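FW: tagging you since you asked about this chain on Friday. Here's the raw sequence from the shared folder, copied in full. Didn't touch anything.
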Amino acid sequence: MARVWERLKYIIPLTLFIIILLLYINFKSFTETGIILLAIPFSLIGASWILFLLGYNLSIAVWVGFIALAGVDAETGIVMLIYLKNAYEKRKADGKMSTYDDLREAIIEGTVLRVRPKLMTVTAIIAGLLPIMWGTGAGADVMKRIAAPMVGGMVTSSLMELLVLPAIYLVWKGRKLRRQ
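HL: got it, structure written out here
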């Protein structure tokens, strides 16, 4: 157990670094990378709460669940950012991006397009993990601890990505719009 904890001290930061590096290579923007990574702390809130409610201690299985949750959050954050970016760029190309209200409408449009896919993703992940959390038998204790952070994290992450992330994008692009 001590050896595994020693390895996790290196693996978890390395995993986060690789995620950040890949996001930066893809978007070529530290701001967009940061916006995507904001989903992770919000998902950790839900993951921590469900661990507390279930009475689970931090273990290697729980950390594996956290790492998987970070990957899923980065993925769904990327998709949300792409929808927002596409709506913004479309309006900008149409010449409809001159006021703050135009920006707000573009962000609402991008967010509305993402509501159904986001809810479908969250529902599918939670529906797939709940039987694992209710399971009994050989290996169920470990699997429950991997699934629990993902279930709790997906709930808070979905709220963040549909409510907070568009607001952050609005503030970021609104500052750029005012400078122009």
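FW: Residues 140-179 form the longest helix (40 residues).
HL: agreed, and The chain is about 90% helix and 0% strand.
FW: great, closing this out.
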